[in-house]
Amino acid sequence: MADSNNPPQAVIDETPISPVERRNSLEQHLKQRPDRSELIEKNILPASNAAPGLQEKQKELEKHMRADSLNEKILHRPPPEKLIQEGVLHEDPRSPEEKYEEAIEDEYAKREGGA
Known about the structure:
Blueprint: H1 19-32, H2 36-41, H3 52-75, H4 80-85, H5 96-112
């Protein structure tokens, strides 16, 4: 068992690196660097050709466009009565008060960890 008071010491190589070795190392790492398409595929880089300063605004615009699209679809959805007629929805035989009571009980159960 290891002594908890004396953690293991990491060995650090402090020998100086020559500029040639450093350049060769850098060149080798740059050759192994993944290309842009691979980084985009892994979601490391954004799939945008916009300038980095504009990418945040572009993301915000896309978010607002999705919200607008969803709101437009919600505005044009059929009313529940039509969906019941078509058999997509089934009518709930409970009264609004019964539905409310059940919703309250479910909420309390969730908060208490019971559901």
